[in-house]
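Proteins fold reproducibly. Consider a sample protein:
=====
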Amino acid sequence: MRLLSHLFTLGLLMLAAAAIGGVLLYNHYSQDLPDYTYLKDYQPPILSRIYADDGRMMATIAAEQRIFVPIKAIPQRVIDAFLSAEDEDFYNHGGVDLQGIVRAASINVMRMAHGSKRPEGASTITQQVAKNMLLTGEVSYSRKIREAILATRLEKTLTKDRILEIYLNEIFLGNHSYGVAAAALNYFNKSLDELTVAEAAYLAALPKGPNNYNPIHDHDAAVTRRNWVISRMVANGKISQEDANEAGREPLAMKTRDEAETASADYYSEEVRRQLIAQFGENEVLEGGLEVKTSLDPKLQDIATHALRAGLIEFDRRERGWRGPAAHMTSFASWQKQLQKMNPPAGGEDWPLSVVIALKDNEAQIAMGDGSRGHIPWSELKWARKQLDDDRFGPAIHKPVDVLSVGDVVMVEPVKTDEAGKAYPAGTYTLRQVPQIQGAIVVLDPNTGRVYAMSGGFSAKISQFDRATQAYRQPGSAFKPFVYMAALDKGFTPSSLILDAPFEYFQGPGLPLWRPENYEQNFEGPTTLRVGIEHSRNVMTVRLANAIGMPIVAEYAKKFGIADDMPNLLSFALGAKETTPLRLTAAYGMIVNGGKRIVPSFIDRVQDRNGKTIWRTDQRECSGCQTFATGWSPDIQPPDIPDTRAQIEDPRTAYQMVNILTGVVKRGTAARLHDIDFPLAGKTGTTTDAKDAWFVGFTPDLVCGVFAGFDDPEPLGSHETGASVAVPIFRRFITEAIKGKTAVPFRVPPGLRMVRVNPATGALAEMGDKESIWESYIPGTEPQEGQVRQVLDGSVTGAAAEGAAGAMNSTSTGTANADSPNGGSVTMIEGSNPPSTVGGVPEQSSQAMPVSNTPLVVPDFKATPAAPPANPSTVGTGGLY
């Protein structure tokens, strides 16, 4: 008995010691535990989504790809799968599963006996929430103790459903997926309620190790783990054995989203992301679950992207030549596997890689990574002369062997027809390479500024630098319409005559004379303002800018948003001031909309995670719009929505310029568009040495700006201009964009008088003149029968700032209203005595040249090319064509 008494006492002492030790251990690990009460109102970081105008998803922005789903909206099938896999006794324990701990401990003893150092876990879902939300992923017993303490406290603070809700929305499930909703989309392209038993079981298999059960790389292991979860669901009475058998037979395969469900616009999406971060901050954009509705028109975006890429490829073939294969196979052993492991160059993701397996006289035979065969006919190879240094072409080529070698790995693209439209046989491909030239295209609504489409380069995979919004380049002659509009506002008319003759500009002491030249290297003599724009005459533009004064020109550049500031130098009248394609396209939008200010906008509306609109572009109030929300009837009058756009230009002047720019398309530098049976207008632009090519064109309701050039500016080619590079891109776009659209003429504002004139002379049209056009005039400025018309010869500077008459009638020589490079005033050489001569004819410098409505007789300037100037300066001259 005494022995039993001692043993009992010893047991009590040991029990007391264990209790005291437990209390001390609990107190020790309870210290400095993180605050867990915030989980009551916790909102997990969720992704922000960007949508196109038609509701299609464009992109998501997130630090963690997560879609939050309340527990009540999660299907029971998904809950059952996760509880069966992770914590089947979840709704019964108090946060810690003691039986699970005992089981894990026995397993760990056996593992340690076999040398394994990583312990088996016995974490409940509550413990996993404690670890994921409050602790680190450290593998240690101390962390497990803290985790268990937190789990018991969480169970007393949160409901079971709230804990499970946090778990199912927070858990990382691989494939960039946080939470079950994101995983269902990323693995199976389904919402949670669309998941099958097998799919729900697969997702429930992932928490133990997403990287170990990838359905592509670890397919067999993934199926085994999935089927184990299915068996646990049967054991727990969640599904029948019949359902389990059917689920086990279901193939495991990932499903990507259909292209029809998404809208692809990488550059557009990136611009939206930048604007969102600037507006709301990075954290709110990455974690706030914003819903962003944009102005993107997916159809126009696809057309614009294709047009830009096709135009850049066409130029690259024409001016740069073939730069060689992407790779070369020295052996055909396992050639298919070799090909499948190769990655195309950045920008060539849409073109499959193929290997040349044979060369014939008229074609190259190729094989694809999937084992299919094809051929590249000579007609799709004949462009591929080798590109040498300094952009020169290599020797002439005559057959495929001059271009390719057996074993070459090249990018190809299927083609159906040749250049003439003749059908190719099936399996025909064309040779592709990523072009070196870059470009941009912008499409917007001229009435609202909403950007319908935008692409800032050939491919965002090459660079995310957006040439539409971030690249500042000289617009060249695409700036000229704003110079001429300033002149129209100062009293000039479309029929005003401006002398197209040699012009010299004194830039300052020690600097050479600046002598601007026309692209054609000739002079036309007295020429109408309209023709000056249609044929992009540089010297006329400089003479006109000199007459009205460069401060006026700079003011127009600023008010149309082209540039925030512009030096008062005459060369800037030719487009030497850099701007972006987006700004220039919007400026043209303000011409076609009648002179109303617009601001380009990409985002229509932003909503927070609860669906509340927190920002919208259109801030106008519409008091009557709510009436239509409850229904519509013929008796309801449309609401009167105010037009809050600022009027920055006389709508009559704006229309005059629109009317003139239609002539650029019909008779001028963009005449290759004249056969398109739709109201079109626009202006080309090419800078010095043809380093930048532009065209901005428009219909009454759509503006499209195109830019092309190298990122490191270099000449495009000796004969390349905006007409040869940018206009074809615009043509590809507009011919597709207007399909199915009703042609609406350009809108004519009140206060104009339409007069039939000859476009070349500006004089009243004679009977039977087939070349005559309807020209628009401010009443009182239209040509009159027998009128003596003056010629602006540039003998004075800045006089037209007070009206055209002063500039055209003054007889004195003045100084230019332009700053020289050293900050002083500059003096026009033109007009000094003795007068300069053009083809032996004295230039009119001291008086206006009278011109009547009779046929204009002037010296043959066309036949007299400009003589090469002595030491001319061409630095910073801006536009050429």
